[in-house]
Amino acid sequence: MKRSIGLLAIALAVLLFGLTTAPAQSSPAKGTVIVPESSMPHPGSVSTNLLLFVPDEVAPSTYPQGENPGSLACVYKLVSQTKGCKQSNSNFPTGGAHAVAVTEIDANPSAASDLTAFANTFFPNGPTPNIQIVCVPSGYTCHNNTGSGWDVETSLDIEYSFGMAPHATIYLVEDSSDDDNAPFTAVS
What we know:
- This protein is 31% helix and 15% strand.
- By secondary structure, the chain is α/β, with parallel strands linked by helices.
- The strands form 2 sheets. A 3-stranded parallel β-sheet has the order 3-5-4. The protein has a two-stranded antiparallel sheet with strand order 1-2.
- The longest helix is centred in the first third of the chain and has 20 residues, at 2-21.
- It is globular, with a radius of gyration of 23 Å.
C-alpha cells in the first residue's frame, strides 16, 4: 500500500512538473471558417463533416502546404516510405491502370477543370487525368445547374482518387434526381 501511494505521489509530481515547464502555446491562427452547404444537416439527407479554414495571412510558398498525394500515398504505403511521411513534391503514386468510380449527389460544373488544375499542381510532368462523367437518372443532362454545396466534396473526391491512382480512369457518377434515394441510384 505504501509503495502504491509512493508511486502515485511520484507520478503526480512528474505530471505537475511537466505542466509548469511546458512551453507556452502560440496563439491560434486568425482566419475564416467556411462551412460548405454539403456540411449543413438537412432532414432526410446525408451530409459531410467538412470545415474549411482560410487564414487571414498566408506565408508565401511556391508549393501548396498541408497534406498532398505524396504524403497520403506514404501513409497508405503506395510509395516508398519516408520517416514520418513528410509532405513531398516528388514521391507520388504512379499506378492505377484501371478505374475508380466516385458517386456524387448533384452536378459539379467545374469538376473536370478542378481535376486538371490539381493534376497540373501536383503532377506537372505526369499523366493527364482521364475523367468520364456519367449522368443519372437516364436522360439527365450533366451540369444543368450552376453547382451546389457538394462541389467542394466532389472536387476533393475526384482529385484524391486521381492523386492515389493517376493512371486510372475516374468515373464521376452524378445523380441529380430529387428523391432521397439519389446516392443509392448513383451507386447502382
